[in-house]
Amino acid sequence: MDKEVAVLQRKLEAELKNFKDSQKEFSKLVQTQRQLDGQYLENKSILEELQLLKPTNTVYKLYGPVLVKQELDDSKQNVSKRIEYITKELKRCSENINQLEQKQDKYRANLQKLQQQYQSQMAMAKQ
């Protein structure tokens, strides 16, 4: 009986470790998603500002400590590509978060089942 309880306890500990690892990964993904959201909003506002400019306006891009002249169309195109890339990354991140949530649900269910088995084994051992 003690051997069964020990095996069950090891399974429970392993499942709990997996669950905690998935929670850490989830936190990292949520943080990444927040960063991407911020970048997306920033680039959206930049694009809106660029749309307000006339073709005769001059646009400069900051490269390190130097301002470099850039064509308005090139600037719009670069920002649009950046927004497209960030959108794809946000979608990928969201999909990963959904998959991880499903994984965590499975871990929770397994943990509950193992806890119930462990508690019933401990109750039987006390009798």
In brief:
It comes from Anopheles aquasalis (Malaria mosquito). The protein is mainly α. It contains two helices and two strands; from the N terminus they run αββα.
Question: What does the model show?
Answer:
The chain is 83% helix and 8% strand. The chain is mainly alpha-helical. The protein has one domain (1-125): Orthogonal Bundle (Helix Hairpins). The chain has a two-stranded antiparallel sheet. Helix 1 (2-52) runs antiparallel to helix 2 (72-126). The chain is rod-shaped and about 90 Å long. The protein starts with a helix and ends with a helix.
Total individual domains: 1
Q: Can you give the mean pLDDT?
A: 92
CATH topology: Helix Hairpins
Shape: rod-shaped
Family: Belongs to the prefoldin subunit beta family.
Protein name: Probable prefoldin subunit 6
Pfam families: Prefoldin_2
Keywords: Chaperone, Coiled coil
Q: What is the secondary structure topology, with strand pairs?
A:
Layout: H1 2-52, E1 59-63, E2 66-70, H2 72-126
Antiparallel strand pairs: 1-2
Helix pairs in contact: 1-2
Give short descriptive properties of this protein:
about 130 residues; mainly alpha; Helix Hairpins; two-stranded antiparallel sheet; about 85% helix; rod-shaped; Prefoldin; Probable prefoldin subunit 6
